[in-house]
């Protein structure tokens, strides 16, 4: 049975068709320039609202010619599902009855952790989902997100984020799927497939972002092409993504928002993207104000649309000046028409022009039904990484008293990643979120749900997240003291931490569970920390807990790896929970007590120091800089035995695929899921290929005592390198390795690719191995 992604499964459906072109041409022949400009801009709903309600007067004043998009329409509101749907219907009614051309708008929102709206299921942050190594689970999560968004009347998402992140210092690290291009590509394709579905008219159009090389040094063309571009290329070619958002970054001294090398040559001509390109919020304005690459905002707008950005988010600032830019010879009407056409084609594809279309779903709406909560629970279980276990986990039946301490023990702050609805309301609006809508389950509640009634839990915070505000805000883009307000919001209603009581109850316990780490004020876009250790006084607090002599289970929450090199050797167990979402407390508790066997493995290298440098397992780890834990690492409550490696000794370089098979046996007493990883290394030291690269993986459930056979069908094209501006598969020998992590290699063998070097004239076509 084919359990992987085959080359023939690619979604190469064109963005447009002759039928769509004819409809759009007919519509555009009737449009004035003002009406065209309206379609290539986005705005906020708040601009049209007075006292919390839509104002028709504001609509007539501000969008008399219609509008392309409403930006982050639900995170700007605090509405129940039915009220949100009705708000969308009200605005669409105005557009479809009062504007001359009656063109509806696209309502878009963030979706990396589910539909970012009040009451909707909140899944683990993407870095946690990266550690699940479970693309099928990602797809199921985003299918549920698509249902919620369509029910509210939304049709478009500014997700997924596909940037590779190779330093935990980056404030957006948590939004990534980690440091590896192959893993990120597999997860990204699953995300897009789930959210878009088989039909744009029933699914949600995805936007892959941030194109490309955002959050990295981005200074090697070979690495850019082979790695940073790969997730975008895979999502476009395999999953049919039709919207791309460029990053705020710079490529060869020119902001990517106005960079034709990236947006025209790489994206459209080389990758073959034929969809719509949208600006990041305020990115075109930055070309003028931040990067000083344009003398005024009008010129910045002309530069952006000439480079290939079709629509301006999130406020109509630059593109309304394009008519003036035409007069000055900075842009042509033909260029504007091309952008307008793409925006209208997207609306047609989404079904917004269909007769008798339904905007949202009638009746009562539930954005967090039991089946979605179950998905959130499973996602949390599979994203939580067990890093260390001296045998204390799962908890033994002789444990009668637990000291539960730390700032994340009984609070919801550590459950929520950036771009969740809750985090966005707290950061952007400085408003408290409702922890009951959806219900956010803390670790304390999870343990109370999971432990036997005879087990006593004593709780005390012991310390705050940080003694001082350790994060700082990017004032150039965010410009106020909202971090200070956010910190006050995070401790609102909490008693002062009592260190002495925390130590007292710890001394009296059988085991200490220390819930440490970050919260939404210490991690996220626009926020950066001074370092990546445990914040504030947390490390000193853990030192005091260790001094009690009682075993300490350290549970880490947050959006990055937090350096714990001074504590690691003395903790009895260490669990990295990331930002695990609404069911995080239940998932953690069930792992701690043994109802769930942990199965996650790191999608990033776990550093052993706070040095500000990029770390990438593909370069190998030197003896002088061994990480605390390597890429691909994670523990289980059972053991697995690998055997019977089978692979041909040589194949033709032009062969479509060759097979690598192994047996994996669960030798323990507990059912589990093992993540089997396939790596390749060059045998030629002079090869331009990095020392080790992931080329396949399979998460497989194996019952205790049972054995499963896995087969990877590998294409020689997966070994393609970008050399002298060409895609080449070099003939010669390669070593394939089966591992439980990037450093725990169980089996390996060498295969010789016979024949002349293979030149891929049209670029790479095959990205993934097929698992059987």
TrEMBL record:
<protein>
    <submittedName>
        <fullName>Beta-glucosidase</fullName>
    </submittedName>
</protein>
<dbReference type="InterPro" id="IPR019800">
    <property type="entry name" value="Glyco_hydro_3_AS"/>
</dbReference>
<dbReference type="GO" id="GO:0009044">
    <property type="term" value="F:xylan 1,4-beta-xylosidase activity"/>
</dbReference>
<dbReference type="InterPro" id="IPR044993">
    <property type="entry name" value="BXL"/>
</dbReference>
<dbReference type="Pfam" id="PF00933">
    <property type="entry name" value="Glyco_hydro_3"/>
</dbReference>
<dbReference type="InterPro" id="IPR001764">
    <property type="entry name" value="Glyco_hydro_3_N"/>
</dbReference>
<dbReference type="InterPro" id="IPR013783">
    <property type="entry name" value="Ig-like_fold"/>
</dbReference>
<dbReference type="Pfam" id="PF01915">
    <property type="entry name" value="Glyco_hydro_3_C"/>
</dbReference>
<comment type="similarity">
    <text>Belongs to the glycosyl hydrolase 3 family.</text>
</comment>
<dbReference type="GO" id="GO:0046556">
    <property type="term" value="F:alpha-L-arabinofuranosidase activity"/>
</dbReference>
<dbReference type="InterPro" id="IPR036962">
    <property type="entry name" value="Glyco_hydro_3_N_sf"/>
</dbReference>
<keyword id="KW-0732">Signal</keyword>
<dbReference type="GO" id="GO:0045493">
    <property type="term" value="P:xylan catabolic process"/>
</dbReference>
<keyword id="KW-0326">Glycosidase</keyword>
<dbReference type="Pfam" id="PF14310">
    <property type="entry name" value="Fn3-like"/>
</dbReference>
<keyword id="KW-0378">Hydrolase</keyword>
<dbReference type="InterPro" id="IPR002772">
    <property type="entry name" value="Glyco_hydro_3_C"/>
</dbReference>
<dbReference type="InterPro" id="IPR026891">
    <property type="entry name" value="Fn3-like"/>
</dbReference>
<dbReference type="InterPro" id="IPR017853">
    <property type="entry name" value="GH"/>
</dbReference>
<dbReference type="InterPro" id="IPR036881">
    <property type="entry name" value="Glyco_hydro_3_C_sf"/>
</dbReference>
<dbReference type="GO" id="GO:0031222">
    <property type="term" value="P:arabinan catabolic process"/>
</dbReference>
<feature type="domain" description="Fibronectin type III-like">
    <location>
        <begin position="674"/>
        <end position="742"/>
    </location>
</feature>
């Amino acid at each position: 049975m084919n359990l992987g992604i085959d080359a023939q499964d690619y979604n190469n459906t064109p963005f447009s068709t002759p039928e769509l072109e004819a409809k759009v041409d007919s519509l555009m022949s009737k449009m004035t320039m003002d009406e065209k400009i309206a379609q290539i801009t986005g705005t906020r709903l708040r601009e049209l609202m007075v006292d919390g309600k839509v104002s028709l007067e504001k609509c007539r004043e501000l969008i008399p010619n219609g509008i392309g998009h409403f930006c982050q329409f639900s995170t700007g509101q605090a509405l129940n599902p039915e009220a949100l749907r009705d708000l969308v219907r009200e605005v669409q009614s105005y557009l479809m009855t009062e504007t001359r051309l009656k063109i509806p708008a696209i309502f878009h929102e963030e979706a990396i952790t589910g539909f970012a709206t009040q009451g909707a299921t909140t899944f683990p942050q993407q870095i946690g989902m990266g550690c699940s190594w479970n693309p099928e689970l990602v797809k199921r999560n985003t299918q549920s997100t698509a249902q919620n968004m369509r029910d509210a009347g939304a049709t478009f998402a500014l997700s997924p984020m596909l940037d590779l992140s190779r330093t935990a210092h980056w404030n957006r690290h948590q939004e990534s799927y980690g440091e590896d291009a192959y893993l990120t590509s597999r997860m990204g394709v699953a995300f897009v497939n789930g959210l878009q579905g088989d039909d744009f008219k029933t699914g949600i159009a995805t936007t892959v972002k941030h194109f490309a090389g955002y959050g990295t040094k981005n200074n090697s063309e070979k690495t850019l092409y082979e790695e940073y571009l790969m997730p975008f290329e895979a999502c476009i070619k395999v999953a049919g993504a039709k919207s791309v958002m460029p990053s705020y970054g710079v490529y060869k001294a020119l902001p990517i928002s106005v960079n034709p090398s990236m947006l025209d040559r790489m994206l459209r001509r080389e990758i073959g993207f034929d969809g719509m390109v949208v600006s990041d919020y305020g990115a075109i304005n930055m070309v003028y104000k931040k990067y000083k690459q344009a003398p005024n905002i009008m010129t910045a707008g002309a530069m952006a649309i000439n480079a290939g950005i079709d629509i301006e988010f999130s406020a109509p600032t630059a593109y309304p000046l394009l008519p003036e830019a035409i007069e000055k010879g900075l842009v042509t009407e033909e260029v504007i028409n091309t952008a307008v056409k793409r925006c209208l084609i997207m609306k047609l594809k989404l079904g917004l022009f269909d007769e008798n279309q339904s905007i949202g779903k009638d009746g009562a709406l539930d954005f967090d039904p039991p089946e979605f909560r179950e998905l959130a629970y499973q996602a949390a279980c599979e994203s939580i990484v067990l890093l260390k276990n001296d045998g204390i986990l799962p908890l033994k039946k002789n444990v009668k008293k637990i000291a539960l301490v730390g700032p994340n023990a009984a609070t919801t702050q550590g459950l929520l990643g950036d771009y969740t609805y809750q985090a966005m309301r707290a950061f952007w609006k400085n408003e408290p979120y409702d922890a009951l809508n959806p219900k956010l389950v803390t670790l304390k509640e999870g343990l109370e749900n999971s432990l036997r009634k005879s087990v006593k839990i004593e709780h005390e915070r012991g310390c705050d997240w940080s003694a001082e505000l350790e994060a700082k805000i990017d004032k150039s883009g965010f410009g106020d003291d909202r971090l200070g307000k956010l910190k006050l919001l995070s401790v609102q209603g909490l008693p002062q931490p009592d260190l002495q009581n925390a130590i007292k109850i710890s001394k009296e316990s059988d085991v200490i569970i220390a819930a440490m780490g970050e919260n939404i004020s210490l991690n996220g876009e626009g926020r950066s920390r001074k370092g990546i250790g445990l914040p504030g006084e947390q490390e000193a607090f853990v030192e005091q807990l260790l001094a009690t002599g009682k075993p300490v289970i350290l549970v880490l929450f947050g959006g990055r790896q937090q350096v714990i090199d001074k504590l690691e050797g003395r903790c009895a167990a260490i669990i990295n929970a990331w930002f695990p979402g609404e069911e995080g407390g239940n998932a953690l508790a069930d792992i701690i007590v043994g109802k769930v066997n942990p199965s996650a493995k790191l999608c990033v290298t776990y550093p052993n120091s706070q040095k500000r440098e990029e770390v990438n397992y593909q370069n190998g780890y030197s003896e002088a800089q061994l990480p605390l834990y390597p890429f691909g690492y994670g523990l289980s409550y059972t053991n697995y035995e690998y055997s019977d490696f089978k692979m041909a000794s040589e194949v033709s370089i032009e062969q479509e695929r060759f097979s690598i098979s192994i047996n994996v046996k669960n030798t323990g007493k507990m059912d589990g899921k093992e993540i089997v990883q396939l790596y390749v290394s060059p045998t030629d030291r002079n090869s331009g290929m990095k020392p080790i690269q992931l080329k396949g993986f399979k998460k497989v459930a194996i019952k205790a005592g049972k054995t499963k056979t896995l087969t990877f069908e590998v294409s020689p094209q997966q070994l393609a390198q970008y050399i002298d501006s060409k895609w080449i598969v070099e003939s010669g020998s390669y070593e394939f390795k089966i591992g439980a992590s990037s450093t725990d290699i169980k089996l390996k063998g060498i295969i010789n690719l016979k024949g002349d070097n293979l030149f891929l004239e049209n670029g790479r076509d095959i990205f993934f191995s097929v698992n059987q």
